[in-house]
Design goal:
Layout: H1 2-17, E1 21-23, E2 35-37, H2 39-58, E3 63-65, H3 75-80, H4 82-85, E4 87-92, E5 99-101, H5 102-128, H6 134-140, H7 142-163, H8 167-176, E6 193-196, E7 200-202, E8 212-214, H9 220-224, H10 227-233, E9 240-249, E10 264-274, H11 279-295, E11 304-308, E12 318-326, E13 329-340, H12 342-351, E14 357-359, E15 364-366, E16 369-376, H13 377-388, E17 389-393, E18 399-403, E19 414-418, H14 425-436, E20 442-444, H15 450-460, E21 464-468, H16 470-475, E22 477-482, E23 488-492, H17 496-504, H18 507-510
Parallel strand pairs: 3-9, 19-20, 19-21
Antiparallel strand pairs: 1-2, 4-5, 4-6, 7-8, 9-10, 10-16, 11-12, 12-13, 13-16, 14-15, 17-18, 21-22, 22-23
Length: 514
């Protein structure tokens, strides 16, 4: 665990040093759980958004995108259930004075049993090799069977207490499991209390209940209230989807772990409207489609896993998370939910407006069911950054820090460097730089030795570096260096655009999704 914590510290330090992420308001000693994306962070973030938008909207003719307002009529949040039910069960440790989400403490306790099982399985794999039958081992090994039974027992109690809003039962479960505070190591807990996560503010100049509105805690409701607007203006036929990228706000009591959990964050969501009765088919379809999308980034299949929800939200009949192996361990990256017809029904009831679709094939009106995919942009940014940051020992014994970002997502696609600052090389390099930057984000770099410049580009994640040398002036060729392999090849200037485009274009990612 200490190694993982060190990894997170390395990521935070690297992000600041190279202009990816800065603490917000740092000159005033910062603001807890608020961060600013620096010059390279803003580029990486925009590229992640582009990849999501192109794959979701551009590649699907039945999905369109919108950009809804952050402020919405306050009744929206009454209808959605957020005013009454958007709570976290919180518990305080009296000795450390630290506050925790009670359900997360229990989930982390369950994870210990999961890790014990994984260790047993890994040990057996090494022992039996190719002859190892994992299914049989899991079903018969006494330790694994015992741990699995314990996991089920805790999950059942947790589900029952949370679904019944039995806060005393949640407290008793924490005490029975002898869960201690990670800071103080004691079991000196307060009772469990509910805390609403919505930020409220006043609209207009007069304060009071009449003018009270909320910062949206999710982007989904902006899609639901625009369901008919989009369907009618776009002549959309079920099944169809509405996608959106936007900011959301939650007054998290425990906002921590860098940009993983913040009070202001960005979501990339798509709500897919389907016929009632077909929602679980589409739920499975989107689970697989989103899994493929993540794997196309090349961060490693072993870094992802599905986690089915123990406690379903009030609107869902199926829900799963795609979890990623962050420096803090496996945590939620994306949620796929079958939301039934809850949202549209609620808005129909509270607004008094019909939110139904006429299906010409069935010749009937109905409220569509919804399958949601929702990924946290900031979490995905952290996943990409942490998985890409590597310390490598080279053949000659020297070390380098490399940020092996997926090329299509890298802030700079190519760096152009003159070998020296004389003999007409800077002029030639500038000419190449100007011809490339119409299509690619480029950096011109002439400071320091070539080796130092290569290391600098490795650290910021630039996939390709072009070195302009004396031979360039003779035959119009340059050396192009690959960040990951460090191999260099001679390429004609006339071919540069084609060579770079093949390697860094979004096409290379999107083709894997078709």
């Amino acid at each position: 665990m200490e190694q993982k914590e060190d990894k997170l510290k390395d990521v935070i330090s690297h992000a600041k040093e190279y202009g990816y992420v800065f603490p917000s308001s740092e000159i005033y000693d910062g603001l807890a759980a608020a961060y600013d994306y620096g010059q390279l962070g803003a580029e990486l973030k925009n590229n992640i958004k582009q990849y999501w938008w192109k794959s979701m909207v551009q590649l699907h003719e039945n999905i369109v995108g919108i950009d809804a307002s952050i402020f919405m009529h306050p009744t929206t949040w009454k209808a959605s259930g957020h005013v009454d039910a958007f709570n976290d069960p919180l518990i305080d440790n009296k000795d450390s004075k630290k506050r925790y989400r009670a359900d997360v403490l229990i989930e982390e306790h369950i994870e210990k049993y999961v890790q014990k099982n994984n260790k047993e399985i890994e040990k057996a794999k090494k022992k039996f090799g190719d002859a190892f039958d994992e299914v049989q081992f899991v079903a018969t090994n006494p330790n694994v069977v015992r741990n699995t039974a314990k996991i089920r027992e805790i999950e059942d109690r947790m589900r029952e207490t949370l679904e019944n809003n039995d806060l005393e039962g949640v407290y008793n479960l924490i005490m029975d499991l002898e869960i201690v505070c990670p800071i103080s190591g004691t079991k000196n807990w307060t009772e469990v209390r509910q805390f609403n996560l919505m930020f409220s503010t006043e609209l207009g100049s007069v304060a009071g209940d009449a003018s009270k509105i909320y910062l949206r805690p999710e982007t989904a409701q902006g899609i639901f209230v625009n369901f008919l607007n989009v369907q009618k203006s776009g002549r959309m036929k079920v099944p169809f989807g509405i996608a959106q990228i936007g900011k959301a706000f939650r007054n998290e009591i425990i906002a921590r772990q860098f940009i993983f959990r913040m009070r202001e964050f960005e979501q990339m969501e798509m709500q897919f409207f389907v016929r009632p009765g077909e929602e679980l088919k589409w739920y499975e379809y989107w689970k697989e489609t989103r899994r493929k999308w993540h794997l196309a980034l090349g961060l490693g299949a072993e870094k992802y896993r599905f986690h089915d929800h123990i406690k379903l939200a009030h609107y869902a009949n199926a829900a799963a998370d795609i979890e990623f192996d962050f420096p803090m361990g496996f945590k939620e990256l994306e949620g796929i939910h079958s939301r039934t017809d809850f949202d549209l029904k609620q808005h129909e009831q509270f607004s008094g407006k019909k939110l139904q679709y006429f299906d010409p094939e069935l010749n009937q009106n109905y409220i569509p069911y919804v399958v949601e995919t929702s990924v946290g942009l900031d979490r995905l940014f952290l996943a990409v950054l942490s998985a890409s940051l590597k310390n490598e020992v080279l053949e000659d014994g020297s070390e380098r820090v490399v940020l092996s970002l997926p090329p299509a997502l890298a802030p700079y696609k190519v760096a152009v460097m003159p070998l020296t600052k004389k003999d007409g090389l800077p002029e030639k390099a500038q000419e190449i730089f100007n011809s490339l930057r119409m299509d690619f984000s480029c950096q011109y770099d002439e400071k320091d030795s070539p080796g130092k410049r290569y290391r600098r580009q490795d650290a910021i994640g630039t996939p390709y570096s072009i070195m302009v040398d004396h031979q360039t002036l003779e035959d119009n060729t340059v050396t192009i260096r690959d960040r990951d392999t460090m191999l260099q090849e001679r390429v004609a200037i006339a071919d540069l655009h084609r060579v770079i485009d093949q390697k860094v274009n979004f096409r290379s990612l999107l083709q894997q999704l078709l």
